[in-house]
Amino acid sequence: MSTKENRKEQKTAGGPKDQMTIQERIKELRCKNRLTQEGAALKFHTNKSTWSRIESGERAPSLQLVEQICKEWHVSADYLLFGEKDTENQVDLSGLSFSQIHIVKELVNDLRRS
Could you give the CA distance from residue 104 to residue 37 in angstroms, rounded to a whole number? Predict the structure, then answer.
């Protein structure tokens, strides 16, 4: 099997995955949240140069940054790192305000209790 075929097989094995890299997913999330690189750098307490290097693939994000991105933008680490989506058990909350997300969480908790 060629290297190209092997990479393709690795990407598709083990469940639904997208074809984007982590840096592309980070950029996509930043854009979905209507932030510039500078705005994202401020939000996550880093500098614009570091953020730019992460999005260009010149630098890997720290584990702390991955955790912050996942919490702030409501994505799983599996999605951010590997592109794996568990669409059956996930709801896309991007674009909702903090108060709207809180209402959704309360509704889910109420449904679990009933």
Answer: 29
